[in-house]
Design a protein that fits this description.
Order of helices and strands: HHEHHHE
Shape: elongated
Strand content: under 5%
Low-confidence stretches: none
Distance between the termini: 23 Å
Structural class: mainly alpha
Largest sheet: 2 strands, parallel
Radius of gyration: 26 Å
Number of strands: 2
Strand order of the largest sheet: 1-2
Mean pLDDT: 82
Helix content: 55-70%
């Protein structure tokens, strides 16, 4: 009988909670065993580090995707603003060269676009990389 992801997650979480709630003596200077670490994050970290099977983190995939969609929408707005500025430009020379472009509004808009493109590009790369390497790195990434 197959165990669902929710059941497996609940089972692992119950194990971790029970395991980490055990009382231990005072924290030694150098801990060699999981039990030697204090309860809470110190012991969680030691357990996660002890075996790749215990390494469980959330991907926050929906949040990454939502953030990318918002950044993409912002870029669409900026692109429309740039197209409108270009369409309404009276001086053709301003459209032929960055150096001769005397429209400060377009220069400011292009700077905003550059910042937004950089943010979108780095975020999309991270999102694609995380999804491509879901379980290759030895850690289980929950949705």
């Amino acid at each position: 009988m197959a165990i669902s992801l929710t059941e497996r997650t609940a089972s692992v979480w119950a194990f971790l909670t029970a395991f980490l709630s055990r009382n231990t003596p005072q924290q030694p200077a150098v801990a060699n065993r999981i039990e030697d670490y204090r309860n809470g994050y110190p012991r969680f970290a030691a357990l996660f580090n002890a075996d790749p099977g215990f390494c469980i983190f959330r991907r926050f995939g929906n949040l990454y995707a939502r953030s990318l969609l918002l950044k993409q929408d912002k870029l669409l707005e900026l692109e429309a603003q740039l197209n409108e500025l270009d369409a309404n430009e009276d001086r053709q020379l301003y459209l032929k060269s960055r150096r001769y472009d005397g429209n400060p509004e377009r220069k400011d808009l292009l700077e905003q676009i550059d910042i937004a493109l950089h943010s979108y590009g780095s975020s999309s790369s991270r999102y694609l990389h995380r999804n491509a390497n879901r379980s290759r790195n030895g850690c289980n990434l929950l949705p």
